[in-house]
Hints:
With 409 residues, the chain is an alpha/beta fold. It has helices at 3-15, 111-120, 215-218, 234-239, 310-317, 334-337, 344-354, 376-388; strands at 151-157, 160-165, 168-172, 202-204, 227-230, 245-248, 253-258, 261-268, 288-292, 298-301, 323-327, 358-362, 403-406.
Amino acid sequence: MTEQTERSVAEARASAQPPAPPARTAPPAETPAPSAPSAAPPSPTVPPPEPPAPSAEAPTPSTDLPRALPRTAPVRPHPTPPPLTEPRPLGEPRTWPRDFTDRLTAPLPGVRALARIAREGKLRPVPESLREIQELPFEPGPMPQAGPTTLALTWAGHASWVIRIGGLTVLTDPVWSRKILGTPPRVTPVGVRWEDLPPVDAVVISHNHYDHLDAPTLKRLPRHTPLLLPAGLAPWARRRGFTHVTDLDWWEAVELPAPGGTVRFDFVPAHHWSKRTLFDTCRTLWGGWMLTAPDGRRLHFAGDTGYGHWFEEIARRYPGIDVALLPIGAYDPRWILRPVHTDPEEAVRACQDLGARVLVPMHWSTFLLSAERPMEPLHRVRTAWTATGRPREDLWDLAVGASRVLGES
Protein backbone atom coordinates (compact mmCIF):
# COMPACT_ATOMS: atom_id res chain seq x y z
CA MET A 1 0.00 0.00 0.00
CA THR A 2 1.41 3.39 -0.97
CA GLU A 3 1.78 6.26 1.48
CA GLN A 4 -1.12 7.98 -0.33
CA THR A 5 -3.25 4.84 -0.01
CA GLU A 6 -2.56 4.56 3.73
CA ARG A 7 -3.37 8.23 4.21
CA SER A 8 -6.61 7.97 2.22
CA VAL A 9 -7.79 4.91 4.11
CA ALA A 10 -6.90 6.44 7.50
CA GLU A 11 -8.69 9.68 6.65
CA ALA A 12 -11.72 7.78 5.36
CA ARG A 13 -12.01 5.87 8.63
CA ALA A 14 -11.58 9.02 10.68
CA SER A 15 -14.11 11.02 8.64
CA ALA A 16 -16.61 8.17 8.72
CA GLN A 17 -16.98 8.22 12.51
CA PRO A 18 -18.16 11.70 13.62
CA PRO A 19 -21.24 11.97 15.87
CA ALA A 20 -24.11 11.96 13.40
CA PRO A 21 -27.56 10.45 12.86
CA PRO A 22 -27.59 6.78 11.84
CA ALA A 23 -28.52 7.64 8.24
CA ARG A 24 -25.16 9.37 7.76
CA THR A 25 -22.90 6.56 9.00
CA ALA A 26 -20.06 5.17 6.91
CA PRO A 27 -20.25 1.97 4.84
CA PRO A 28 -18.87 -1.36 6.04
CA ALA A 29 -15.15 -1.98 6.46
CA GLU A 30 -13.18 -2.27 3.26
CA THR A 31 -12.07 -5.91 3.31
CA PRO A 32 -13.58 -7.63 0.26
CA ALA A 33 -12.24 -10.87 -1.07
CA PRO A 34 -10.24 -10.76 -4.32
CA SER A 35 -12.16 -11.58 -7.44
CA ALA A 36 -12.07 -14.77 -9.47
CA PRO A 37 -12.06 -14.84 -13.29
CA SER A 38 -15.54 -14.85 -14.80
CA ALA A 39 -16.59 -16.96 -17.72
CA ALA A 40 -17.78 -14.13 -19.97
CA PRO A 41 -16.85 -10.51 -20.78
CA PRO A 42 -17.64 -8.17 -17.88
CA SER A 43 -20.86 -6.18 -17.85
CA PRO A 44 -20.35 -2.47 -17.22
CA THR A 45 -23.13 -2.47 -14.61
CA VAL A 46 -22.98 -5.75 -12.68
CA PRO A 47 -19.87 -6.54 -10.63
CA PRO A 48 -18.16 -9.86 -11.41
CA PRO A 49 -18.62 -13.05 -9.40
CA GLU A 50 -16.34 -13.53 -6.41
CA PRO A 51 -15.28 -16.76 -4.66
CA PRO A 52 -17.97 -17.75 -2.12
CA ALA A 53 -17.10 -16.31 1.27
CA PRO A 54 -19.16 -15.22 4.28
CA SER A 55 -18.16 -11.57 3.74
CA ALA A 56 -19.12 -11.58 0.06
CA GLU A 57 -22.63 -13.02 0.14
CA ALA A 58 -25.31 -11.15 -1.74
CA PRO A 59 -27.04 -8.45 0.28
CA THR A 60 -30.66 -9.05 1.10
CA PRO A 61 -33.36 -6.93 -0.52
CA SER A 62 -34.31 -3.83 1.41
CA THR A 63 -36.99 -1.20 1.09
CA ASP A 64 -35.10 1.24 3.31
CA LEU A 65 -33.85 3.39 0.43
CA PRO A 66 -32.09 6.64 1.31
CA ARG A 67 -34.25 9.64 0.47
CA ALA A 68 -33.33 13.27 0.04
CA LEU A 69 -33.76 15.16 3.28
CA PRO A 70 -35.93 18.31 3.12
CA ARG A 71 -33.53 21.21 3.28
CA THR A 72 -33.69 24.76 2.05
CA ALA A 73 -29.96 25.11 1.37
CA PRO A 74 -26.99 22.86 0.63
CA VAL A 75 -25.09 21.27 3.49
CA ARG A 76 -22.09 23.48 4.17
CA PRO A 77 -18.73 21.74 4.57
CA HIS A 78 -16.40 21.85 7.54
CA PRO A 79 -15.17 25.43 8.07
CA THR A 80 -11.49 24.48 8.21
CA PRO A 81 -10.74 22.15 5.28
CA PRO A 82 -7.28 20.57 5.10
CA PRO A 83 -4.83 22.12 2.64
CA LEU A 84 -4.90 20.72 -0.87
CA THR A 85 -1.99 18.61 -2.06
CA GLU A 86 0.68 20.15 -4.23
CA PRO A 87 0.04 19.43 -7.94
CA ARG A 88 2.03 16.51 -9.31
CA PRO A 89 4.08 16.71 -12.53
CA LEU A 90 2.22 15.92 -15.73
CA GLY A 91 3.22 12.62 -17.34
CA GLU A 92 5.03 11.41 -14.21
CA PRO A 93 5.92 7.67 -14.27
CA ARG A 94 4.33 5.96 -11.27
CA THR A 95 4.47 2.61 -9.49
CA TRP A 96 1.17 1.37 -8.09
CA PRO A 97 -0.05 -1.54 -5.94
CA ARG A 98 -1.02 -4.73 -7.75
CA ASP A 99 -4.70 -4.00 -7.07
CA PHE A 100 -6.98 -1.59 -5.24
CA THR A 101 -9.41 -3.95 -3.54
CA ASP A 102 -8.65 -2.19 -0.25
CA ARG A 103 -10.51 0.84 -1.65
CA LEU A 104 -13.84 -0.95 -2.06
CA THR A 105 -16.52 0.34 0.31
CA ALA A 106 -18.75 -2.73 -0.12
CA PRO A 107 -17.95 -6.36 -0.98
CA LEU A 108 -18.43 -7.29 -4.61
CA PRO A 109 -21.30 -9.76 -5.19
CA GLY A 110 -20.52 -13.43 -4.85
CA VAL A 111 -21.55 -16.44 -6.91
CA ARG A 112 -24.95 -16.64 -5.19
CA ALA A 113 -25.77 -13.06 -6.18
CA LEU A 114 -24.82 -13.65 -9.82
CA ALA A 115 -26.87 -16.85 -9.84
CA ARG A 116 -29.86 -14.93 -8.51
CA ILE A 117 -29.52 -12.27 -11.22
CA ALA A 118 -29.32 -14.98 -13.89
CA ARG A 119 -32.36 -16.71 -12.43
CA GLU A 120 -34.49 -13.58 -12.14
CA GLY A 121 -33.33 -12.02 -15.41
CA LYS A 122 -34.07 -8.48 -14.18
CA LEU A 123 -31.28 -6.39 -15.66
CA ARG A 124 -33.23 -4.71 -18.46
CA PRO A 125 -36.51 -2.72 -18.48
CA VAL A 126 -39.69 -4.72 -18.99
CA PRO A 127 -40.63 -4.75 -22.70
CA GLU A 128 -43.84 -2.75 -22.25
CA SER A 129 -41.82 0.17 -20.83
CA LEU A 130 -39.65 0.51 -23.93
CA ARG A 131 -42.21 2.77 -25.59
CA GLU A 132 -40.89 5.44 -23.20
CA ILE A 133 -37.69 5.59 -25.25
CA GLN A 134 -39.41 8.02 -27.62
CA GLU A 135 -39.97 10.37 -24.65
CA LEU A 136 -36.28 10.57 -23.69
CA PRO A 137 -35.18 14.21 -23.96
CA PHE A 138 -32.90 14.90 -26.93
CA GLU A 139 -32.29 18.53 -27.87
CA PRO A 140 -28.99 18.97 -29.71
CA GLY A 141 -27.96 22.52 -30.35
CA PRO A 142 -24.90 24.68 -30.87
CA MET A 143 -22.48 24.79 -27.98
CA PRO A 144 -22.31 28.16 -26.22
CA GLN A 145 -19.48 30.56 -26.88
CA ALA A 146 -16.93 30.08 -24.10
CA GLY A 147 -14.15 32.47 -23.18
CA PRO A 148 -11.52 32.34 -20.42
CA THR A 149 -14.06 33.26 -17.72
CA THR A 150 -16.83 30.88 -18.87
CA LEU A 151 -17.92 27.66 -17.16
CA ALA A 152 -20.21 25.85 -19.59
CA LEU A 153 -21.52 22.28 -19.96
CA THR A 154 -22.85 20.36 -22.94
CA TRP A 155 -24.21 16.83 -22.45
CA ALA A 156 -23.17 14.36 -25.12
CA GLY A 157 -24.99 11.54 -23.28
CA HIS A 158 -24.37 9.05 -20.44
CA ALA A 159 -21.30 10.38 -18.53
CA SER A 160 -19.84 12.19 -21.54
CA TRP A 161 -19.66 15.98 -21.17
CA VAL A 162 -18.00 18.79 -23.04
CA ILE A 163 -16.84 21.15 -20.28
CA ARG A 164 -15.54 24.62 -21.08
CA ILE A 165 -13.54 25.94 -18.13
CA GLY A 166 -10.86 28.64 -17.93
CA GLY A 167 -10.65 28.69 -21.72
CA LEU A 168 -10.04 24.91 -21.93
CA THR A 169 -12.27 22.27 -23.55
CA VAL A 170 -12.39 19.12 -21.43
CA LEU A 171 -14.13 15.83 -22.25
CA THR A 172 -15.33 13.53 -19.47
CA ASP A 173 -15.58 9.75 -20.04
CA PRO A 174 -16.09 10.29 -23.79
CA VAL A 175 -18.23 7.61 -25.46
CA TRP A 176 -19.23 8.51 -29.02
CA SER A 177 -19.74 4.85 -30.03
CA ARG A 178 -23.22 3.58 -30.85
CA LYS A 179 -22.57 0.23 -29.16
CA ILE A 180 -20.29 -0.79 -26.31
CA LEU A 181 -19.32 -4.25 -25.10
CA GLY A 182 -21.99 -5.99 -23.04
CA THR A 183 -24.85 -3.53 -23.60
CA PRO A 184 -27.64 -2.88 -26.11
CA PRO A 185 -27.06 0.03 -28.54
CA ARG A 186 -27.58 3.55 -27.25
CA VAL A 187 -31.20 4.70 -27.28
CA THR A 188 -30.45 8.37 -27.94
CA PRO A 189 -27.91 9.68 -30.44
CA VAL A 190 -24.74 11.41 -29.29
CA GLY A 191 -25.69 14.96 -28.34
CA VAL A 192 -22.66 16.59 -29.98
CA ARG A 193 -21.31 15.62 -33.38
CA TRP A 194 -17.61 14.80 -33.19
CA GLU A 195 -16.83 17.18 -36.04
CA ASP A 196 -18.50 20.02 -34.11
CA LEU A 197 -16.16 19.71 -31.12
CA PRO A 198 -13.64 22.48 -30.57
CA PRO A 199 -10.03 21.31 -30.12
CA VAL A 200 -9.91 19.10 -27.02
CA ASP A 201 -7.43 20.31 -24.39
CA ALA A 202 -7.80 17.40 -21.93
CA VAL A 203 -9.76 14.21 -21.25
CA VAL A 204 -10.62 12.96 -17.77
CA ILE A 205 -11.59 9.31 -17.19
CA SER A 206 -13.36 8.09 -14.05
CA HIS A 207 -12.70 4.33 -14.37
CA ASN A 208 -12.13 1.60 -16.92
CA HIS A 209 -15.62 0.12 -17.49
CA TYR A 210 -16.49 0.03 -21.17
CA ASP A 211 -19.30 2.59 -20.90
CA HIS A 212 -16.79 5.12 -19.48
CA LEU A 213 -13.50 4.21 -21.17
CA ASP A 214 -14.27 3.75 -24.86
CA ALA A 215 -11.19 2.93 -26.93
CA PRO A 216 -12.80 3.65 -30.34
CA THR A 217 -13.70 7.17 -29.20
CA LEU A 218 -10.27 7.89 -27.77
CA LYS A 219 -8.68 6.74 -31.04
CA ARG A 220 -10.30 9.76 -32.70
CA LEU A 221 -8.18 12.12 -30.61
CA PRO A 222 -4.69 13.38 -31.46
CA ARG A 223 -2.18 11.26 -29.56
CA HIS A 224 -0.74 14.33 -27.84
CA THR A 225 -4.08 15.06 -26.11
CA PRO A 226 -3.52 15.12 -22.31
CA LEU A 227 -5.28 12.15 -20.68
CA LEU A 228 -5.93 12.33 -16.93
CA LEU A 229 -6.59 8.86 -15.56
CA PRO A 230 -7.11 6.85 -12.36
CA ALA A 231 -4.07 5.16 -10.86
CA GLY A 232 -2.88 2.20 -12.90
CA LEU A 233 -4.46 3.18 -16.24
CA ALA A 234 -1.48 5.01 -17.74
CA PRO A 235 0.05 1.86 -19.31
CA TRP A 236 -3.26 1.13 -21.10
CA ALA A 237 -3.21 4.61 -22.67
CA ARG A 238 0.49 4.56 -23.55
CA ARG A 239 0.10 1.23 -25.35
CA ARG A 240 -2.37 3.05 -27.61
CA GLY A 241 0.11 5.71 -28.52
CA PHE A 242 -0.90 8.56 -26.20
CA THR A 243 2.12 10.59 -25.15
CA HIS A 244 0.72 12.97 -22.49
CA VAL A 245 -0.68 10.57 -19.89
CA THR A 246 -1.02 11.16 -16.16
CA ASP A 247 -2.59 8.76 -13.65
CA LEU A 248 -3.40 9.83 -10.11
CA ASP A 249 -4.32 8.46 -6.70
CA TRP A 250 -7.25 9.82 -4.69
CA TRP A 251 -6.72 13.39 -3.46
CA GLU A 252 -3.87 13.99 -5.94
CA ALA A 253 -4.01 16.76 -8.53
CA VAL A 254 -2.41 18.24 -11.61
CA GLU A 255 -2.72 21.67 -13.18
CA LEU A 256 -3.05 22.62 -16.84
CA PRO A 257 -2.22 26.07 -18.19
CA ALA A 258 -5.23 27.83 -19.67
CA PRO A 259 -5.98 31.17 -21.35
CA GLY A 260 -7.72 32.29 -18.16
CA GLY A 261 -4.96 31.15 -15.82
CA THR A 262 -4.51 27.62 -14.43
CA VAL A 263 -7.17 24.90 -14.22
CA ARG A 264 -6.70 22.38 -11.42
CA PHE A 265 -7.84 18.74 -11.73
CA ASP A 266 -8.17 16.75 -8.48
CA PHE A 267 -8.91 13.02 -8.53
CA VAL A 268 -11.36 12.22 -5.73
CA PRO A 269 -12.90 9.01 -4.34
CA ALA A 270 -16.08 7.29 -5.51
CA HIS A 271 -18.03 4.25 -4.31
CA HIS A 272 -17.45 1.98 -7.28
CA TRP A 273 -14.99 -0.60 -8.69
CA SER A 274 -13.07 -1.43 -11.88
CA LYS A 275 -12.76 -4.28 -14.36
CA ARG A 276 -12.06 -4.44 -18.09
CA THR A 277 -10.90 -7.99 -18.83
CA LEU A 278 -11.46 -11.40 -17.32
CA PHE A 279 -8.51 -11.10 -14.97
CA ASP A 280 -8.14 -7.47 -13.84
CA THR A 281 -10.80 -6.85 -11.19
CA CYS A 282 -9.82 -3.70 -9.23
CA ARG A 283 -6.34 -3.64 -10.80
CA THR A 284 -6.87 0.07 -11.57
CA LEU A 285 -8.47 2.76 -9.43
CA TRP A 286 -11.84 4.48 -9.88
CA GLY A 287 -13.09 7.89 -8.80
CA GLY A 288 -14.39 11.29 -9.79
CA TRP A 289 -12.82 14.63 -10.67
CA MET A 290 -12.92 18.09 -9.15
CA LEU A 291 -12.24 20.82 -11.69
CA THR A 292 -11.32 24.22 -10.29
CA ALA A 293 -11.35 27.24 -12.60
CA PRO A 294 -8.80 30.05 -12.34
CA ASP A 295 -11.44 32.19 -10.60
CA GLY A 296 -12.06 29.46 -7.99
CA ARG A 297 -15.36 28.10 -9.28
CA ARG A 298 -15.62 24.35 -8.85
CA LEU A 299 -17.26 21.52 -10.77
CA HIS A 300 -17.48 17.97 -9.42
CA PHE A 301 -17.76 15.17 -11.98
CA ALA A 302 -18.66 12.04 -10.01
CA GLY A 303 -18.15 9.51 -12.80
CA ASP A 304 -19.92 6.38 -11.61
CA THR A 305 -20.65 5.89 -7.92
CA GLY A 306 -22.91 4.58 -5.21
CA TYR A 307 -23.99 6.69 -2.25
CA GLY A 308 -21.75 6.86 0.80
CA HIS A 309 -19.44 8.77 3.10
CA TRP A 310 -17.05 10.05 0.45
CA PHE A 311 -19.36 12.90 -0.56
CA GLU A 312 -19.11 14.59 2.83
CA GLU A 313 -15.34 14.18 2.85
CA ILE A 314 -15.09 15.70 -0.63
CA ALA A 315 -17.16 18.66 0.60
CA ARG A 316 -14.84 19.07 3.58
CA ARG A 317 -11.75 19.26 1.38
CA TYR A 318 -13.28 21.28 -1.47
CA PRO A 319 -15.68 23.85 -0.05
CA GLY A 320 -17.81 25.97 -2.33
CA ILE A 321 -18.67 23.48 -5.09
CA ASP A 322 -20.77 25.25 -7.71
CA VAL A 323 -21.88 22.33 -9.92
CA ALA A 324 -22.14 18.59 -9.23
CA LEU A 325 -22.54 16.15 -12.14
CA LEU A 326 -24.07 13.06 -10.50
CA PRO A 327 -25.40 9.74 -11.87
CA ILE A 328 -29.11 8.99 -11.50
CA GLY A 329 -29.56 5.84 -13.64
CA ALA A 330 -28.65 2.13 -13.79
CA TYR A 331 -29.88 1.45 -10.24
CA ASP A 332 -32.48 -1.35 -10.41
CA PRO A 333 -32.46 -3.96 -8.87
CA ARG A 334 -31.26 -2.13 -5.76
CA TRP A 335 -30.23 -5.24 -3.86
CA ILE A 336 -27.23 -5.68 -6.18
CA LEU A 337 -26.62 -2.18 -7.65
CA ARG A 338 -27.00 -0.03 -4.53
CA PRO A 339 -23.26 -0.14 -3.58
CA VAL A 340 -22.09 1.09 -7.01
CA HIS A 341 -24.90 3.23 -8.54
CA THR A 342 -26.84 6.03 -6.88
CA ASP A 343 -30.57 6.16 -7.51
CA PRO A 344 -32.19 9.59 -8.09
CA GLU A 345 -32.97 10.21 -4.42
CA GLU A 346 -29.43 9.30 -3.41
CA ALA A 347 -28.05 11.64 -6.08
CA VAL A 348 -30.01 14.53 -4.58
CA ARG A 349 -28.75 13.61 -1.13
CA ALA A 350 -25.19 13.39 -2.45
CA CYS A 351 -25.56 16.90 -3.89
CA GLN A 352 -26.59 18.10 -0.44
CA ASP A 353 -23.65 16.28 1.18
CA LEU A 354 -21.29 17.93 -1.31
CA GLY A 355 -22.66 21.36 -0.48
CA ALA A 356 -23.07 21.94 -4.23
CA ARG A 357 -25.40 24.66 -5.46
CA VAL A 358 -26.37 23.04 -8.78
CA LEU A 359 -27.19 19.37 -9.46
CA VAL A 360 -26.73 18.12 -13.02
CA PRO A 361 -28.12 14.57 -13.48
CA MET A 362 -26.31 12.19 -15.85
CA HIS A 363 -25.77 8.45 -16.50
CA TRP A 364 -29.29 7.87 -17.79
CA SER A 365 -31.18 8.30 -21.09
CA THR A 366 -28.37 6.81 -23.21
CA PHE A 367 -27.73 3.11 -22.52
CA LEU A 368 -30.35 0.90 -20.87
CA LEU A 369 -28.06 -0.79 -18.35
CA SER A 370 -30.56 -1.96 -15.72
CA ALA A 371 -34.22 -2.65 -15.04
CA GLU A 372 -35.80 0.73 -14.28
CA ARG A 373 -38.18 2.23 -16.85
CA PRO A 374 -36.39 4.58 -19.26
CA MET A 375 -38.09 7.78 -18.00
CA GLU A 376 -38.19 6.84 -14.32
CA PRO A 377 -34.86 8.46 -13.30
CA LEU A 378 -35.97 11.88 -14.53
CA HIS A 379 -39.35 11.76 -12.77
CA ARG A 380 -37.80 10.61 -9.50
CA VAL A 381 -34.96 13.14 -9.43
CA ARG A 382 -37.41 15.99 -10.02
CA THR A 383 -39.64 14.77 -7.20
CA ALA A 384 -36.70 14.35 -4.82
CA TRP A 385 -35.37 17.80 -5.66
CA THR A 386 -38.75 19.42 -5.05
CA ALA A 387 -38.93 17.72 -1.64
CA THR A 388 -35.77 19.54 -0.52
CA GLY A 389 -37.26 22.99 -1.08
CA ARG A 390 -34.23 23.97 -3.14
CA PRO A 391 -34.70 26.40 -6.09
CA ARG A 392 -35.97 24.62 -9.20
CA GLU A 393 -33.49 26.52 -11.38
CA ASP A 394 -30.61 24.82 -9.55
CA LEU A 395 -31.62 21.42 -10.95
CA TRP A 396 -30.13 21.32 -14.42
CA ASP A 397 -32.02 18.30 -15.77
CA LEU A 398 -30.65 18.70 -19.28
CA ALA A 399 -31.70 16.89 -22.41
CA VAL A 400 -28.99 15.03 -24.31
CA GLY A 401 -27.31 17.62 -26.51
CA ALA A 402 -28.33 20.60 -24.37
CA SER A 403 -25.98 23.12 -22.76
CA ARG A 404 -25.93 25.41 -19.72
CA VAL A 405 -23.60 28.20 -18.70
CA LEU A 406 -22.86 29.04 -15.08
CA GLY A 407 -23.24 32.75 -14.42
CA GLU A 408 -20.12 34.86 -14.27
CA SER A 409 -18.39 34.84 -10.89
